[in-house]
Amino acid sequence: MSTERDSETTFDEDSQPNDEVVPYSDDETEDELDDQGSAVEPEQNRVNKEAEENREPVRKECTWQVKANDRKYHEQPHFMNTKFFCIKESKYAVTPLFFFQAIPQISTLAWYTTLFPLLLVLGITAIKDLVDDVARHKMDREINNRTCEVIKDGRFKVAKWKDIQVGDVIRLRKNDFVPVSEPILLLPVLVLPQETNLKFKMSLEITDQYLQREDALAAFDGFIECEEPNNRLDKFTGILSWRKTRFPLDADKILLRGCVIRNTDFCHGLVIFADFLALKKKKKNSGWVRIIVVLILLSAGLAIGHAYWEAQVGNYSWYLYDGEDATPSLRGFFNFWGYIIVLNTMVPISLYVSVEVIRLGQSHFINWDLQMYYAEKDTPAKARTTTLNEQLGQIHYIFSDKTGTLTQNIMTFKKCCINGQIYGDHRDASQHNHNKIEQVDFSWNTYADGKFAFYDHYLIEQIQSGKEPEVRQFFFLLAVCHTVMVDRIDGHLNYQAASPDEGALVNAARNFGFAFLARTQNTITISELGTERTYNVLAILDFNSDRKRMSIIVRTPEGNIKLYCKGADTVIYERLHRMNPTKQETQDALDVFANETLRTLCLCYKEIEEKEFAEWNKKFMAASVASTNRDEALDKVYEEIEKDLILLGATAIEDKLQDGVPETISKLAKADIKIWVLTGDKKETAENIGFACELLTEDTTICYGEDINSLLHTRMENQRNRGGVYAKFVPPVQEPFFPSGGNRALIITGSWLNEILLEKKTKRSKILKLKFPRTEEERRMRTQSKRRLEAKKEQRQKNFVDLACECSAVICCRVTPKQKAMVVDLVKKYKKAITLAIGDGANDVNMIKTAHIGVGISGQEGMQAVMSSDYSFAQFRYLQRLLLVHGRWSYIRMCKFLRYFFYKNFAFTLVHFWYSFFNGYSAQTAYEDWFITLYNVLYSSLPVLLMGLLDQDVSDKLSLRFPGLYVVGQRDLLFNYKRFFISLLHGVLTSMILFFIPLGAYLQTVGQDGEAPSDYQSFAVTMASALVITVNFQIGLDTSYWTFVNAFSIFGSIALYFGIMFDFHSAGIHVLFPSAFQFTGTASNALRQPYIWLTIILTVAVCLLPVVAIRFLSMTIWPSESDKIQKHRKRLKAEEQWQRRQQVFRRGVSSRRSAYAFSHQRGYADLISSGRSIRKKRSPLDAIVADGTAEYRRTGDS
């Protein structure tokens, strides 16, 4: 009997990971991996598969329906019932304490003590949100009021974006933004999807053929079934039903909102999605739970005390009878809620708005920082969130992209090797090197762009003299072998390339005299040193990530057939003719270029006989129209012609590091921040950039994938051996992977990463699967097997993270966006550290969203990373200021703020606790009601807010000069359990002093007038005055950076207290509101007694003098790093100049190989070959609108 084989993912131990390839696609499934296999499957499976292919496909994911030019169709009830609900927790939930205060049996406080602070907090928060909403509404209104043309009543009419609906047919002109989420293309176009590099989009051939006129577009009645809106921007599944035929739709036929139309005068599209909103979740904070627990325990203890006091004293004291015959237990229950109200200021509602104000202010300081402003592109730094500022001061790990983040992503042709000779050094026409030489004058070339800088005059001499034909053929290859599109703007050539590398190569050939001028479906025109020649294009063998090369086959005007090819050295060298005299010289040049961190590729060619081409072309045409496995068939045909190639040389393109990258990485490393580079580039390129930015040094020991795999295998074996019966009795031993000392780095490719982390997918066995019910034992064994596999995988991943974190630098290359996010998630999971991810492109979005903090670089790669980030700026070097200055200051300010806030509120609130021992635990307050109302709102709020906004222990220059100051945030030294309980203890001791010193002073005393001042109201005024002076002077002791504003706020708060107190204790306000103001004359009567002033001074002194003494001893005997720097800050004002480490060239070492300079995406070959890509001369748009019968003239641009 046959049983079903397990079809779960397995791990192939036999295959060796390939460092040269990017792992499988993020969305590739096991079934898709199956299709790639070549194993022979059973006959029964083949028959079943054919039956499935012949069956009408049922697409469960195609649940979204769109009908063209029919708005009424989308107003039907089953469409209108589809709604998206967004539930959000309200900030403005009114505390239930206010309602408890309305119950006389519970509350001893007036209702306004909670209502007034609550209204103030809600008012400030509402104003802040209103400002944000108004700004957001203004931006939305500006975008929504943009216009485009929509077909209405059979003609195109101008409409606003907000009025566009699903099913509308719209017209987009050149340089227009796409206004809706996803329109389907009806005419072909090239677009710029918020990226520098163009992406081609090709419409269905049927719509391109029949929907050229306005009346045809108005009559279009196609019906689309597709997937619902989702976050998979690179995939799309749908079907267009039109003219009784179904046409498949994919991502190449869809435009996303925000794309820019290029390379066409206009195009038309059908709106599929509109008004789809994606929301970002906010993090929750549960830090209040512990304080609330303390509040409940205190209230419960005091309530029990009141119940006991009532049973022992209250019931037997006739003068305390209140007319209610409540039991002691019931009175204790009421007092529990009474103390919850009285002691609720331990968690004051003003804390929320204070934190919001501080965070908002810190975010604006980041936005206003001129030292993070990039004037070249008018790009300031932008804090896109206000909730993560203090976490910027606690970063342990930074995950960075390479291209466009560490580098400029602006490619420049720097050097080349032709026929074994290296060109590009500073030398004159006689091959003499010079340190200072003028750049080459390209005025002889009418097509030179005037921006290209080159200093090797000897290469120009070789081109113009023609002594070496290989030199001219080299640049002719660059001018002809590409998929660049050309456009003329004001008579100047404008190249549109699929990658910046390819654009740089074609532009270099243009400046050296071989200018690409125009192309049609079958021809390409080149200016060769001023002579225009047109070549017939017989075939374009396009680039893909597997081939790593592209070729073009052309027929010269003389009738010869030639193949020109460019690609990675690893694939080109495998296909060279064995008789290549310059092979070794070119290899040496590649090593030199790689050591200079240049991006390289090899150029080669071959001549093809007419008969050979005719035979190959038949195979090529057959593969081009194959209905299944077309790509595999084409690759196989390409291999037949791309062999026995003649090597011409190699190019070297420079992708410069951004300014200040080595300095930034050096300072962040000194701040004990680990930097991991995650990139899709080749290992050699990533390693070279690591050396260039000084992430790696010459004394760094580098571990590669095979080394890591061996170390992890040994560790797993040791752990397995220790995991016997007695493992639970033996404490786990965390042994280091490397001996102490030495500088180590880890470089790992995506393939090795999958192998090591047990994420590698393998193909399933192609066997007949007959499903039978499993027994209970089989299910149990299967479950145990899965658990063991998951446990092994988790242990392996933890070991990898431990190993990587022992290295000073980690570089992960040839990794997919999904793998980038996975690496970040592993560090978050196993290290419990704050992480930051920084990138500039769409492929960095997953990584940016996975990290605790995401930073977007607004550079050459567009705005996707910026829109997904928490902070953004234009240059990587600004990261050091964001973390070492703003992040560190924000952390210190917030920690100081929280410590002081809890201190002042415990000192204020716990006076009620001590007072309860003398009032029968009756929840009577120790202060006047109005003082309780205004304490956190007016008397002590402004100084702490200003400290949270402006305080700094050292200046920004010293913060950058001494990165070691940053470690206090990483170790969370300024606000942890220890610091919190110290603040709590400080508040408790202060509250005891504030209560017991006035209490002792008031016992058995007589004033100057012979009267006893020891009444309750005078006692409350004395405690309140001492409290306000103490907490305001205390914040003066905590302030490190004094300004006039700080001093004014401290003394102003004290003056404000006394001014309001005298007003509230006046007879005039008592006459107006007798029930609300009952302390009539108390302040004037009490504070005219010198005895009370002495009591206040004594109380304040006892509270503050021990603090002053402890601070002095601490700074003298155990000074912190910031204390030392503050002490010598005048001597340290001159900022230390950072010196770049000298580069050491390791001649003869070829471990750092050359890097393939293409982008990892296909070019425009399909579009060019289709014939619909070339800019067609159309009738003027006005003529088309006016005359529905206007025809397009389909002639190629010259």
From TrEMBL:
Binding site for ATP: D401, K402, T403, E502, F543, K566, R599, T679, G680, D681, R814, K820, N843, D844
Domain P-type ATPase C-terminal: 866-1120
Gene3D superfamilies: Calcium-transporting ATPase, cytoplasmic domain N (3.40.1110.10), Calcium-transporting ATPase, cytoplasmic transduction domain A (2.70.150.10), HAD superfamily/HAD-like (3.40.50.1000)
Places the protein is found: Apical cell membrane; Cell membrane; Cell projection, Stereocilium; Endoplasmic reticulum
Source organism per UniProt: Saimiri boliviensis boliviensis
Residues holding Mg(2+): D401, T403, D840, D844
Assembly notes: Component of a P4-ATPase flippase complex which consists of a catalytic alpha subunit ATP8B1 and an accessory beta subunit TMEM30A. The flippase ATP8B1:TMEM30A complex can form an intermediate phosphoenzyme in vitro. Also interacts with beta subunit TMEM30B.
Transmembrane segments: 109-131, 288-309, 336-355, 897-918, 930-950, 980-1004, 1016-1035, 1047-1071, 1091-1114
InterPro entries given in the database record: ATPase_P-typ_cyto_dom_N (IPR023299), ATPase_P-typ_P_site (IPR018303), ATPase_P-typ_TM_dom_sf (IPR023298), ATPase_P-typ_transduc_dom_A_sf (IPR008250), HAD-like_sf (IPR036412), HAD_sf (IPR023214), P-type_ATPase_IV (IPR006539), P_typ_ATPase (IPR001757)
Catalyzed reaction equations: a 1,2-diacyl-sn-glycero-3-phosphocholine(out) + ATP + H2O = a 1,2-diacyl-sn-glycero-3-phosphocholine(in) + ADP + phosphate + H(+); a 1,2-diacyl-sn-glycero-3-phospho-L-serine(out) + ATP + H2O = a 1,2-diacyl-sn-glycero-3-phospho-L-serine(in) + ADP + phosphate + H(+); ATP + H2O + phospholipidSide 1 = ADP + phosphate + phospholipidSide 2
Pfam families, A to Z: Cation_ATPase, PhoLip_ATPase_C
NCBIfam families registered for this protein in UniProt: ATPase-Plipid, ATPase_P-type
Gene Ontology cellular-component terms listed: apical plasma membrane; cytosol; endoplasmic reticulum; nuclear body; phospholipid-translocating ATPase complex; stereocilium; trans-Golgi network
GO biological process, alphabetically ordered: apical protein localization; bile acid and bile salt transport; bile acid metabolic process; Golgi organization; inner ear receptor cell development; negative regulation of DNA-templated transcription; regulation of chloride transport; regulation of microvillus assembly
Listed name of the protein: Phospholipid-transporting ATPase
E.C. designation(s): 7.6.2.1
One of the record's GO molecular function terms: aminophospholipid flippase activity
Ranges of compositional bias, category Basic and acidic residues: 43-59
Organism placement in taxonomy: Eukaryota, Metazoa, Chordata, Craniata, Vertebrata
Keywords: ATP-binding, Cell membrane, Cell projection, Endoplasmic reticulum, Golgi apparatus, Lipid transport, Magnesium, Membrane, Metal-binding, Nucleotide-binding, Translocase, Transmembrane, Transmembrane helix, Transport
Co-factor requirement: Mg(2+)
Membrane topology: Multi-pass membrane protein
